[in-house]
Automatic annotation (TrEMBL), chains A, B:
<dbReference type="InterPro" id="IPR051914">
    <property type="entry name" value="FAD-linked_OxidoTrans_Type4"/>
</dbReference>
<keyword id="KW-0285">Flavoprotein</keyword>
<dbReference type="InterPro" id="IPR016166">
    <property type="entry name" value="FAD-bd_PCMH"/>
</dbReference>
<dbReference type="GO" id="GO:0016491">
    <property type="term" value="F:oxidoreductase activity"/>
</dbReference>
<dbReference type="Pfam" id="PF02913">
    <property type="entry name" value="FAD-oxidase_C"/>
</dbReference>
<keyword id="KW-0560">Oxidoreductase</keyword>
<protein>
    <submittedName>
        <fullName>FAD-binding protein</fullName>
    </submittedName>
</protein>
<dbReference type="InterPro" id="IPR016169">
    <property type="entry name" value="FAD-bd_PCMH_sub2"/>
</dbReference>
<dbReference type="GO" id="GO:0071949">
    <property type="term" value="F:FAD binding"/>
</dbReference>
<dbReference type="InterPro" id="IPR006094">
    <property type="entry name" value="Oxid_FAD_bind_N"/>
</dbReference>
<dbReference type="Pfam" id="PF01565">
    <property type="entry name" value="FAD_binding_4"/>
</dbReference>
<dbReference type="InterPro" id="IPR016164">
    <property type="entry name" value="FAD-linked_Oxase-like_C"/>
</dbReference>
<dbReference type="InterPro" id="IPR036318">
    <property type="entry name" value="FAD-bd_PCMH-like_sf"/>
</dbReference>
<dbReference type="InterPro" id="IPR016171">
    <property type="entry name" value="Vanillyl_alc_oxidase_C-sub2"/>
</dbReference>
<comment type="similarity">
    <text>Belongs to the FAD-binding oxidoreductase/transferase type 4 family.</text>
</comment>
<keyword id="KW-0274">FAD</keyword>
<feature type="domain" description="FAD-binding PCMH-type">
    <location>
        <begin position="40"/>
        <end position="218"/>
    </location>
</feature>
Length: 458, 458
C-alpha cells in the first residue's frame, strides 16, 4: 500500500483539532496490533483519535478523497486481527468517545463507541438496570468492538448476544455520511433492517460512533454449581443433557490444561486432577439453589460427575466465574497463543471437543480448551513457542485444522470473536461461493472504493 | 405493468408440475389481497404455488428472465399490503410448503416458510419446547410472513421479536440462487450478518423458503393481572411505571371502544364502563401470583386503577388474553378498517395515545386502540364506512396523520406489521433521505432488476 501524500496528511491534521491527528511513528506504532498480535499487521501512516462523530466523518471523507484505507479501532482487545493496522492506512480510534447516558424511563443506554463494556454495565447498575452481554474481556473491551463482532460472553446462553441489545446506531458510512438507524423504540420495523446489518460487520460496512442499547432489570441472585468430570467428553455430554430441558444463565467448561493454567497463575482452589470442570449458574428468580440447579446437578451426576459443589453465596460464585474469566491471561503466561473460537450445534459439542484433542495430538501442540459450552462455542487455545519456527508452523496448521474440523461438523469458525484477518482464509470454505458473492455485493454497495477495513472478513 | 407473454407463461407452466402454476383468473383473483384489503392491489397474471425451494428457484429464474415482478405470499394475513398483488405479476405462494421438523437435541425447529406460527408452537410444545413470537394472528399467519415483517406479538415485551429467534434461513435471491445463511449454531459470527438483513425485508431482497428457529424450554405458568382505569392516560402512565423496574411477560392495553367492541362481538365479562384496561402476565418461575404481579398491582394502584383482579388460574388468564386477541376481528364487524401499528419509546406512550385521541377528534373518525403497551407499540384502528367516500377520505387522512404524529414523537410508523404498500408514503419522513438512499443501495445490490416485491417498502 502506498503512503498518503504528505500534503494530504498535513491537510488532515490542519482540519482537525490539535492532538486528534497523530503521525509520530512512536505513537502510531501502538495502533498496529490488536490482542491477536497478528504479525501480518501493517504500519499505519496516521491515527485519528476522534472526539466526536463529526471528526469521524471528516477523517472518513478525507480517506475517501485520497483512497486511504481506514481501520476502525475501539479498545484494541480484538482476538481475530479485525483492527490490525494496514500499511499506509488510517487507524480511526474511537478511544476518546466514551460518553454514557442512561435513560431509565426508556430502559436504554446511549453510548459512544469507545466506552468500555464494564463502564456501561456499571452505569446501568447505578440505576438498578443491567446490560447483559459479557465477553470475558468486559473490563477492557469497547462497546464499538462488541458491536463490530456481535460479541457474546458468558451469560448469552440465556440472555443472547450483542445484536439482541442494539436498538439504535449512529454509523459513519464510507463516504462520510452519518446515518442514524433505529433509536429508543423497542419495536420498529420501518424500512429494511439495516441496523442489524452493521452489528457484526467488523467495520467493513461503516463505523459505529454511537449506540442505543437495551437494558433490562437487574439480574436476580444466582446460584452456582461447579461439577468436575473424569474427562472432557463426560462434561460435554452433561452440557447436552442440561441444554435439552434447561436454560441456565451460565454454562462454561474448562479442560484440565486450562484448570491447571489458572491454578498456576492464581490459585483459586480448582481441582487440578479433574479432566474437565463445568461451571453453571441459575438466576431463575426466587429459587436460589432450587429447582434449576438441582436438575443440573442430576444431569451432571448421570453424566458421570465426580464432584459436585453448589452455592448460593454470590461471592463464592463470582470467585469461580473469575477463575473462568482469567483463563486466557493465565494460558498467555505459558506461551504465545492463537485463539480459536469455533462452534457447533450443541449436540455436537462432544464431537467438536474430541476433534480438537485429535488435532492437538496430530500436530503435537498444546490446545487447552475453555468453552461457552451451553452455546456450543469453544475457545481452543493453540499454545506455541514464539521463538521456534517449527512450533509456530505446527500451531498455525493446527489452528487451521481446528477450523476445518468445525466446518466439517456443520459448525462455525467463529462464534463471537469475528473473522478479522486471522480467520479469513477459511471463511469461503464455511460459507461457500454463493454466500461469499452475496457478501461481496453488499460490501461493494456500501463501500464501493473498498476503503473500510480492507483485508478484514472478505 | 405489461402482461407476460403468453408463450412465456406456457413455458413456466410446462416447466413445473401440474397444479403448481395457476393462471385461471377465478383462482388468481384469490391472491390479489392480503388482510389489509388494499384497494390499490393489482391483478396477478400468474400464481405459482411452490411445493419446494427448487420450484421457487425455477419461478424466480423465469421471472428474472422475463422481467416479471414477483410478490411472495405466505398465508395472506399481512396488515400493510406487503403481499398485495401487482398487475401482470407473479404471486409466489408458499402456502404448500408447510413441513416442520423439531430437533430436540439442538432445541430448534426447521420450518418451511408456509407453516403457520401456531403449527410451529404446537410441534414444539409436543417436545416440551416453546417458540415464543406470538402475533395475535398466530393461528392464521405463516412463519415466512412473520420473518418477512419481523413480527412481534404479545409476549415479545419479555421474549423479543421474530429476528431474535431466527438462527438460519434458506433464501432464494433475485437471480434464483438459493443461499443458506446460519444454521443450527446458537452463536455464529462468520462473515457479514446477512441473515438478519432478510428478517424484516418484506420479500424485497429475497424469498425465504425455510428457517431454523430457536426454541426455548416451555414457558413457566403465568399469573395474570387485569386492571381497569378511568382513562387511557392513567393506564399508559401505569405502563411506564411498570416498565421502569419490571419485565412482565405480557403488558397489553385496550381502550373503552375496543373493550366494548369485544363485548359486543363475544361477551367476555370485561368492564364496559372502564376508560382503559391493562392486561399483564408474569411468568417469573415459582412465584405464581407473587412478587412481580404484586409490584405491578402496586404500580397500577398508584396510577389510579379503579379495579384490580389477579389470578394464577391458567384458563382464567387465557380467557382475558383471548379477549385481547379477538379485538381486531371484533372491531372489523363495526366497519371497514385501516390498521395502524405506530410506536414510540415507552415513556412517550401517554403522549402517543393522547395524539391518537386528538387525531380521531380532528378528523371525526372512530379510532379504537389496542396496544402492546409494554413495548410502546400501539394499534389504533381507524374505522370507516366503506360505502361513504367522505368517511373513507377522513379515515385516510387520519391514518396518515397518526403516522405523522408518531414520527413527531420520535416514534415509528410500524412496530411489527411492516411498511408494505399502505405505509410506504411516510417512510421517507421517518427515515430521512440518507437512510432511504442507503436502503436503495442495498436493494439495488440484491435485486438489480427490481423484480422482488416492487412497490413494497421502498
Amino acid at each position: 500500500m502506498d503512503q498518503p501524500d504528505p500534503a494530504a496528511l498535513a491537510d488532515l491534521a490542519a482540519s482537525l483539532p490539535d492532538g486528534v491527528v497523530v503521525t509520530d511513528p512512536d505513537l502510531t506504532q501502538k495502533y498496529r496490533l490488536d490482542r491477536s498480535q497478528d504479525d501480518a499487521a501493517g504500519t499505519p501512516a496516521v491515527v485519528v483519535r476522534a472526539e466526536d462523530a463529526a471528526q469521524v466523518q471528516a477523517a472518513v471523507r478525507w480517506a475517501a478523497r485520497h483512497a486511504v484505507p481506514v481501520v476502525p479501532r475501539g479498545a484494541g482487545s480484538g482476538l481475530s486481527g479485525g483492527s490490525s493496522a494496514v500499511d499506509g492506512g488510517l487507524v480511526l480510534s474511537l478511544e476518546r468517545m466514551r460518553a454514557i447516558e442512561i435513560d431509565t424511563e426508556s430502559q436504554v443506554a446511549v453510548v459512544e463507541a469507545g466506552a468500555f463494556n464494564a463502564e456501561v454495565k456499571q452505569a446501568a447498575a447505578e440505576h438498578g438496570l443491567w446490560y447483559p452481554p459479557d465477553p470475558s474481556s468486559y473490563e477492557i473491551c469497547s462497546i464499538g468492538g462488541n458491536i463490530a463482532t456481535n460479541a457474546g460472553g458468558l451469560c448469552c446462553v440465556k440472555y443472547g448476544v450483542t445484536t439482541d441489545y442494539v436498538l439504535g446506531l449512529d454509523v459513519v458510512l464510507a463516504d462520510g455520511t452519518l446515518v442514524t438507524l433505529g433509536g429508543k423504540r423497542i419495536k420498529d420495523v420501518a424500512g429494511l433492517p439495516l441496523l442489524k446489518l452493521f452489528v457484526g460487520s467488523e467495520g467493513t460496512l461503516g463505523i459505529v460512533t454511537r449506540a442505543v442499547l437495551r437494558l433490562v432489570p437487574a439480574q436476580a441472585p444466582r446460584a452456582t454449581m461447579v461439577a468436575t468430570f473424569p474427562n472432557v467428553d463426560a462434561a460435554a455430554r452433561a452440557v447436552v443433557a442440561v441444554r435439552r430441558t434447561l436454560r441456565p444463565s451460565m454454562l462454561e467448561l474448562m479442560d484440565r490444561a486450562s484448570i491447571n493454567a489458572v491454578e498456576d497463575y492464581r490459585p483459586m482452589g480448582l481441582d487440578r486432577t479433574a479432566g474437565a470442570l463445568l461451571l453453571a449458574q441459575s438466576d431463575a428468580p426466587g429459587v436460589s439453589c432450587g429447582a434449576e440447579v438441582e436438575l443440573m446437578r442430576a444431569a451432571c451426576e448421570a453424566a458421570g460427575a465426580t464432584e459436585l459443589f453448589v452455592t448460593d453465596d454470590p461471592d463464592e460464585g463470582e470467585m469461580f466465574v473469575e477463575a473462568r474469566r482469567i483463563a486466557i491471561p493465565a494460558i498467555e503466561t505459558t506461551g504465545a497463543l492463537m485463539l480459536e473460537d469455533v462452534g457447533a450445534p450443541v449436540p455436537l459439542l462432544p464431537d467438536l471437543l474430541a476433534a480438537i484433542e485429535e488435532v492437538a495430538a496430530a500436530y503435537d501442540v498444546r490446545i487447552p480448551v475453555i468453552a461457552h459450552a451451553g452455546d456450543g462455542n469453544t475457545h481452543p487455545i493453540v499454545v506455541y513457542d514464539a521463538g521456534d519456527a517449527d512450533s509456530e508452523k505446527r500451531a498455525r496448521e493446527a489452528f487451521r485444522e481446528v477450523m476445518q474440523r468445525a466446518i466439517d461438523l456443520g459448525g462455525t469458525i467463529t462464534g463471537e470473536h469475528g473473522v478479522g484477518r486471522t480467520k479469513k482464509e477459511l471463511l469461503p470454505t464455511q460459507l461457500g461461493p454463493d454466500v461469499m458473492a452475496l457478501s461481496r455485493r453488499v460490501k461493494d454497495a456500501l463501500d464501493p472504493q473498498g476503503i473500510l477495513n480492507p483485508g478484514a472478513v472478505l
